[in-house]
């Protein structure tokens, strides 16, 4: 028999589900199964479950055709479980590495009905907060099991399904199921504790409880929070049915109910002001209805005052008390904020007087009407005309000619603009005026922090690659590669987005996780790849001729990524030795990352076999010219794969890169072609022509199917029709 069945319900968690599944399947413990229940999720959660099942027999997907809700979805998974124990893990949470052997050891040693494990709240800003475990059990309870009546303080631990592993036969015998509706954990977790003969506590953090910035029920306002009352009513009906067996637990359970009601009411993200009086009235009614005849332990201090106000139904006094507490805390925050900001602001104003004057000009321009015909474009921190914004700009000129497109560029990059492209230079009055008044703002990175999102304006984030390395909020876990990043400011920039353009389902999932906000995703392919998808042989030959490359030469393009955590890093790569292997008909193009563009030394077409193309402004030209791409962890591989030509992953520091920078998937396990982890192997791949082997081509086919299916040459048109013409897909 399998020891542990993991039941993982999935609904709108595509950005987090992979991390959840990996955290289970990568544990140093195999006696498990994962039952993933796709609750008719409108995103790609079901496809992810199917993908994992195809490569790991321990994963069993259940794809529902109608949404049933979290509780019933868990029940469906429970009905299919075969394990001795069941662990309900939500699709946006994840296990702590290496925790499962400890859980298994405790289960096998003590055979509890319920084993409670510790957790941390993993907030979106990478702050972790501990659970109440140390407060509830100042002395760790050890391996001994107990009944709830012997340790009623156990009920003060969070009443969720995911922080406990439950014996499956115990659930079946007791008929314990999840009820439909919100707060479904309440009517499951407390009855399970009351019915259990053997409760165990593992004082080890085993699960990360993700506190999402957007999309979580606990951060959603509405009247569905009133469903908490029905869940607690189920608990008390069950206690009435069980009678004397649980009578002595009633005071402690009642105290937990009032505590929970106060928690829900006190969270401003849940109960809107107009609903608060009705919610409080129901609290008072339940207090009168379920209060034990002999009373219950009322908490001390302010919490006790709240309980007494609920008991007497004094809503106005309750509101006044809450308002006084909030006012005091706001005053304290204001003092701290002033102390923190006054001195730095004064210094910045002194240093940047001209910039301050221009910002004032920008703010004044914000009061003027939006220009309904102006679209502002930018790419790579104003480095010039490039990438997805350039493709969208070209399509917009064709499809919406009444819209005036203007580019923002650095002064030193003005000369790189194509003829006829209107522009403003960054930092000039014209730049601030365009930022303030543009109806559309299109960028593949973020506009500066000072930019305000005006009502009626439309911000389009096109991104500039399919992610291999972790991005956005996920970088908080890899501080070496995120030095200097201000994640609070990042999120304020992300909150300006109206649209996020993605190239494939995988990117959609990762951006949703890395940049949680309320934008609309346009999963349409990458506009910059339209040119690659539609390129003709004549265009390829023209590009090669412009680069001085003959029609019979074999061209290898080497394009590594930037390593933020290793400034000045250079890969172990000897161009001369590679050229020796390529032979007299070989040509090697080498391109540095765009972060190094100020250090470039432009060269024209070379007479020799080695050509430095770092200064070439259009990377798409280089893709078209190359017969083979050699890269490491760069998004270049996803773009080049559109051409269906050989790709080689040269990853000499893969292990170190994964640890320091973090990655979203195992590139060496799912590569786009042949792989070399050292330079001699790279030379052998070309010497034996293994770059074109059947195995390499099979990898490329699978890679293209996963990442390039939408790149059909019309992505830019799809963006323009949705963003500028408001046409649906």
From TrEMBL:
Keywords: Cell membrane, Membrane, Teichoic acid biosynthesis, Transferase
TM annotation in the entry: none
Subcellular location: Cell membrane
SUPFAM superfamilies: Nucleotide-diphospho-sugar transferases, UDP-Glycosyltransferase/glycogen phosphorylase
Membrane topology reported for the UniProt record: Peripheral membrane protein
Boundaries of every Glycosyltransferase 2-like domain copy: 5-162
Family: Belongs to the CDP-glycerol glycerophosphotransferase family.
Name of the protein in its database record: Bifunctional glycosyltransferase/CDP-glycerol:glycerophosphate glycerophosphotransferase
Top-level taxonomy: Bacteria, Bacillati, Actinomycetota, Actinomycetes, Micromonosporales
């Amino acid at each position: 028999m399998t020891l542990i069945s993991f039941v993982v319900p999935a609904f709108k968690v595509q950005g987090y589900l992979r991390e959840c599944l990996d955290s289970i399947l990568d544990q140093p413990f195999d006696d498990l199964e994962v039952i993933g229940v796709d609750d008719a999720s409108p995103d790609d959660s079901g496809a992810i479950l199917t993908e994992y099942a195809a490569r790991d027999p321990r994963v069993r997907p259940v794809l529902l055709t109608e949404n049933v809700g979290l509780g019933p979805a868990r029940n469906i998974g429970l009905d299919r479980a075969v394990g001795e124990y069941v662990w309900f893990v939500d699709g946006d949470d994840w296990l702590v590495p290496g925790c499962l052997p400890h859980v298994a050891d405790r289960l096998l040693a003590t055979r509890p009905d319920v084993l409670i494990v510790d957790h941390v709240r993993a907030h979106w800003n990478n702050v972790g907060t501990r659970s109440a475990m140390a407060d509830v059990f100042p002395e760790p309870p050890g391996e001994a099991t107990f009944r709830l009546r012997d340790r009623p303080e156990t009920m003060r631990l969070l009443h969720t399904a995911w922080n406990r592993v439950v014996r499956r036969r115990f659930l079946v015998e007791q008929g314990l199921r999840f009820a439909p509706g919100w707060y479904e954990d309440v009517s499951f977790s407390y009855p399970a504790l009351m019915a259990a003969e053997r409760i165990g506590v593992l004082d080890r953090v085993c699960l990360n409880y993700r506190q999402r910035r957007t999309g979580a029920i606990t951060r959603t306002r509405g009247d569905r929070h009133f469903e908490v009352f029905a869940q607690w009513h189920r608990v008390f009906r069950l206690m009435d049915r069980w009678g004397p067996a649980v009578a002595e637990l009633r005071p402690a359970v009642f105290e937990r109910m009032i505590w929970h009601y106060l928690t829900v009411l006190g969270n401003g993200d849940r109960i809107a002001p107009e609903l608060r009086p009705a919610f409080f009235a129901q609290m008072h009614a339940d207090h009168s209805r379920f209060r034990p005849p002999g009373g219950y332990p009322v908490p001390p201090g302010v919490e006790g005052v709240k309980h007494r106000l609920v008991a007497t139904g004094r809503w106005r006094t309750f509101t006044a008390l809450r308002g006084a507490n909030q006012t005091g805390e706001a005053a304290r925050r204001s003092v701290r904020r002033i102390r923190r900001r006054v001195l730095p602001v004064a210094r910045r104003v002194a240093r940047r007087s001209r910039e301050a004057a221009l910002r004032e000009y920008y703010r004044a321009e914000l009061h003027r009407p939006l220009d309904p015909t102006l679209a502002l474009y930018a790419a790579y921190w104003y480095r010039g005309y490039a990438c997805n914004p350039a493709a969208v700009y070209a399509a917009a000129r064709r499809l919406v000619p009444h819209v005036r497109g203007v580019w923002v560029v650095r002064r030193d990059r003005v000369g790189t603009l194509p003829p006829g492209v209107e522009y403003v230079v960054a930092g000039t009055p014209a730049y601030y005026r365009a930022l303030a008044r543009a109806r559309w703002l299109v960028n593949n990175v973020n506009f500066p922090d000072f930019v305000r999102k005006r009502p009626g304006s439309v911000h389009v984030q096109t991104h500039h690659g399919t992610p291999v390395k972790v991005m956005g909020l996920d970088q908080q876990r890899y501080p070496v590669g995120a030095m200097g990043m201000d994640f609070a400011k990042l999120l304020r920039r992300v909150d300006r987005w109206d649209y996020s353009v993605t190239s494939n389902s995988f990117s959609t999932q990762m951006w949703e996780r890395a940049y949680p906000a309320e934008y609309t995703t346009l999963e349409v392919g990458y506009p910059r790849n339209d040119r690659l998808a539609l390129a003709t042989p004549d265009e390829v030959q023209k590009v090669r001729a412009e680069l001085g490359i003959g029609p019979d030469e074999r061209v290898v393009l080497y394009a590594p990524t930037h390593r933020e955590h290793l400034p000045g890093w250079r890969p172990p790569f000897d161009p001369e030795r590679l050229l020796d292997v390529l032979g007299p008909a070989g040509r090697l193009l080498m391109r540095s990352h765009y972060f190094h563009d100020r250090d470039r030394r432009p060269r024209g077409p070379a007479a020799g076999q080695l050509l430095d193309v770092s200064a070439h402004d259009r990377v798409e030209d280089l893709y078209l010219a190359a017969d083979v791409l050699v890269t490491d962890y760069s998004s270049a591989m996803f773009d080049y794969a559109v051409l269906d030509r050989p790709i080689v992953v040269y990853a000499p520091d893969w292990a170190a890169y994964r640890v320091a920078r973090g990655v979203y998937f195992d590139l060496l396990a799912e590569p786009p072609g042949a792989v070399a982890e050292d330079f001699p192997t790279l030379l052998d791949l070309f010497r034996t022509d293994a770059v074109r082997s059947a195995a390499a081509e099979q990898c490329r086919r699978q890679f293209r199917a996963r990442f390039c299916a939408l790149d059909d040459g019309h992505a830019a048109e799809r963006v323009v029709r949705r963003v500028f013409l408001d046409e649906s897909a």
